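ok trying again, last paste got cut off:
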Amino acid sequence: MIIKWSPFSPIDSEETLTIVKRSDVLTVNGERFDFRPLPDGATLPAAAINCEWIEQDVKRVDGELIITFRLPVGQDASSAARFPVDTINPADGIVSIPQ
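nice, full thing came through this time. structure:
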């Protein structure tokens, strides 16, 4: 799995993102999304997922799930949050979000 990050400045500064991973099942702010059925080479349109945190279409390329999340950053955000690197093959559990 490759998680890409798309920083944005939220209107509500208390807006947060929490992601829990188990295999190709992601729980985003308490809502479960199961990407296991997505076959290799397929693309799932972001509009079909109905999750405000998923920024772009979700793809499976060479067996890897590739997903882009919106990343809320404040005005005092670190460089790591403003210019995040991809999270590659995160372990099952709570996904570390760039701060």
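cool. The chain has a mean pLDDT of 94. Residues 2-94 form one domain.
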